[in-house]
Write a structure and sequence with these properties.
The protein has about 425 residues and is of the alpha+beta class. Among the domains are: about 80 residues, no CATH class; about 120 residues, Immunoglobulins (Immunoglobulin-like); about 80 residues. Helices cover about 25% and strands about 25% of the residues. It contains 12 helices and 16 strands. A 4-stranded antiparallel sheet has the order 7-8-12-11, with no helix packed on it. It has a 4-stranded antiparallel sheet with strand order 10-9-13-14. Strands 1-2 form a two-stranded parallel ribbon. A hairpin with a 2-residue loop joins strand 5 and strand 6. The protein is elongated, with a radius of gyration of 37 Å. The N terminus is likely disordered.
Length: about 425
């Protein structure tokens, strides 16, 4: 055997096109080498010997350029120079002009097969197992601490907010793309968790315990579990995108959604997480203006006990956001007859007025600032979703590439009305 030594001193080799893996000896060279002790040659010397011997494969695939890179400068006191000798030119660039797979450069069939299998293992099984049909048989040394085979890389899904649907005060749309290699890994399910997050200060967050962890196949696509999570889109022959509609969220709250892919051995991928700040509570500004007018009429002039109770019940039935808009409109239109807070205390008494006004403090400062905008528009859109009846779906037989065909058998397309608030005046540019 001929052993190649690494780059010598000032020699530098660089592949600038094609692929170069290594060159085997001719049969005559190998027979000669078996008869004598192994040699130790530098790589330039080995290349030169092949060129001199007329090796056609080498001469047609490799050219070698020599260039003098200069010597040690005379001003450097740390260099040891050898006087009286001229340095020979050394190879500094190796250009491969013909690319070929490594195993095709070998003439032995068994060696070709071994290298081919090793390359498949490195490509699909991280070099820690053998490719059998379309899966990896992992070596015993590649099992994880929980006893699951770990040689085939499990792709991490990337969860994101849908760019086509903005979050509402109670709903978000999440999506990701289903991807899996053709060999090594078979994804059979996805897990998604929902956590509520509280912000303790500007730099630190603390999580409240996980509210739910759902299986895409068992709990969502099969239509068996929660009405708060619905299918939006599933993979088909055109797209591999999956989207979920998450409902039942609380306004002005931060949530973190985490997604894992699960393969047929039960192994989970690395998680992908999205943190979302849900918008402020929804408000119907037209209705709030009508209630402000009603409260003024109840408070105007002599107020009987019945009218006082009607005003109290009306205001207590309002949510914090609508009450804030009633407060805003009342002061905008009727403040010259008395400010809203003062009129409530005067007509209803300090205790009842305190109960009503305390609801205004339930809103965050962010939402209170938005509710002081002069104009708030209520906007409606229709969102398409899949309403699924219960049907047992087998993980092992799921065909992700054409899941829409399977889903259409148990799901119907329906539309959900989603409400949004637009704050402030809309200007046309």
């Amino acid at each position: 055997m001929v052993r190649w030594e690494a780059l010598k001193a000032r020699s530098r080799f660089k592949v600038i096109s094609g692929e170069y893996g290594g060159i085997g000896n001719s049969p005559s060279d190998e027979s000669e080498e078996r008869e004598k002790d192994p040699k130790s040659l530098t790589f330039p010397a080995y290349v030169s010997s092949l060129l001199d011997s007329g090796d056609e494969l080498m001469s047609s695939g490799v050219r070698m350029y020599c260039e003098n890179r200069g010597g040690c400068p005379s001003s450097c006191h740390l260099c040891h120079r050898t006087g009286g000798q001229n340095r020979q030119e050394e190879p500094v660039l190796l250009e491969v002009t013909k690319a070929a797979p490594l195993y095709e450069l070998l003439s032995d069939n068994e060696t070709q097969k071994a290298i081919y299998e090793a390359m498949l293992s490195q490509l699909w099984c991280s070099g820690g197992g053998d490719v059998i049909d379309d899966w990896c048989r992992c070596d015993s040394t590649t099992f994880s601490v929980d006893g699951l085979p770990n040689c085939a890389p499990l792709p991490q899904p990337v969860l994101r907010l849908s760019p086509a649907h903005e979050p509402s005060s109670s709903l978000v749309v999440l999506e990701w793309h289903h991807t899996e290699p053709i060999i090594g890994v078979k994804i059979v399910d996805y897990l998604i968790s929902l956590e509520r997050v509280t912000i303790t200060d500007r730099t630190e967050t603390s999580k409240i315990e996980t509210e739910s962890v759902l299986s895409f196949v068992d709990d969502i696509a099969s239509g068996s579990k929660t009405p708060c999570v619905m299918l939006g889109k599933v993979p088909d022959k055109v797209s591999n995108s999956i989207s979920l509609i998450i409902r039942c969220l609380e306004p002005d709250t931060t949530y973190m959604f985490t997604l894992w892919a699960v393969d047929n051995t039960g192994r989970r991928s690395r998680p992908s997480a999205v943190t979302v700040k849900v918008p402020c509570p929804l408000v119907d500004d037209v209705k709030a203006k009508e209630i402000a007018d009603k409260i003024y009429n109840l408070f105007n002039g002599y107020t009987s006990g019945k009218e006082q109770q009607t005003a109290y019940n009306t205001l207590m039935d309002l949510g914090p956001s609508t009450l804030h808009r009633v407060y805003y409109h009342y002061n905008q239109d009727y403040e010259h007859f008395g400010e809203f807070t003062w009129r409530c205390e005067d007509e209803l008494g300090p205790r009842k007025a305190g109960l009503i006004l305390s609801k205004l403090e339930e809103l965050s400062s962010w939402c209170r600032s938005l509710l002081r905008e002069p104009k708030i528009i209520l906007r409606r859109i229709s969102l398409k979703y899949l309403s699924c009846q219960y049907s047992e779906m087998k993980r092992s037989g799921i065909n992700w590439q054409d899941l829409s065909t399977e889903v259409k058998k148990i799901c119907d397309e329906q539309f959900l009305t989603v409400l949004y608030n637009d704050y402030g005046e809309h200007k046309e540019f």
